[in-house]
UniProtKB/TrEMBL annotation:
InterPro entries with a match to the protein in the record: PdxA_fam (IPR005255)
Keywords tagged on the record: Metal-binding, NAD, Oxidoreductase
Gene that encodes it: pdxA
An annotated Gene Ontology molecular function: NAD binding
Gene3D superfamilies: Isopropylmalate Dehydrogenase
Name of the molecule in the record: 4-hydroxythreonine-4-phosphate dehydrogenase PdxA
EC numbers, comma separated: 1.1.1.262
Pfam hit, one: PdxA
Amino acid sequence: MQLTAWSIGDMNGIGPEIILKSFRRISQSGSRPLVTGSFKALDYYNKLLGLDVHLQQVHSPTEACSLPEGILPVLSTKEPCTLPNPGTVDPDSGRIALSAISKAVELCLEGSCSAMVTAPIHKEAIAAAGCHHNGHTGYIARLCGSGSPIMLFHDPVTGLNVALATIHEPLSSVPGLIRDMDMGAFVTRLHQSLQQDFAIRNPRIALLGLNPHASDGGVMGTEEQDFLIPAIEQLSEHIDIQGPFAADGFFGARRYTSFDVTLAMYHDQGLLPFKVLAFDTGVNVTLGLPIVRTSPDHGTSFDIAGSGKASPESFTCAAQLADRIALNRNNRRNHP
């Protein structure tokens, strides 16, 4: 039985709820989830929301594999001092979230789990717990000893993929970062990751311009002429890449349907249209890691935490995609 690590996220958010609901949906699938984090927190929401999921505390992946189907194993990494307090920022919940992530990464690196799926964390809570990373991606990359991972968003319904050249950066910093980055190396890594993780033999890549209207020939900035167009011309010798496209017209005319991935220059350029098109089913995928990592494309939703209103759709899609990527990587290793 193949295990997938599901980290609990912030226990005061919707993470425990969507984990429980997702397990009820996919408990009969090929892989078995192993929740890392807090048995006490998961049990609290299971009873509060009347979800009737059969939980079992375990102490090892081997013990988790031995359980009958229909039982959700939980490996506690740290228990809260008190019961969860839905909708509140708490350093204790931040510490549990971080320990859950660390354990999930450890299990994947040692081969006990084939992939990890992370429930949402709260940046303020993990900061209060002493973490200086601004989110999951950087923290996981450090644990894996990786350099600069690529953030990609996937919608299993439409097949839309959006990758980000820069991630959580102030808008004022983006032009300088684009000018300084090795766009050729970045696109090459993205191309290789699509081949490995999504089994796309010859990925078609669309690159968006940085400036409005992709600068209209230099009228509104020169990054396109100075950096992006030369990179595209060089890359096109061995990669199917086109651009730079004006972002508004590109999404408005649905040109993304002709490509396997759209590369946006900054966070909101890519994620605003993506979330309009795929808010409920979107999945965040971290490419360029030695392990498989996916997550739902939403936050902790403190406003509805503990109410039973949280949709598990995105987390369920993330879990299914994690299993698919793990299978693609395994097939590629066995049939290079």
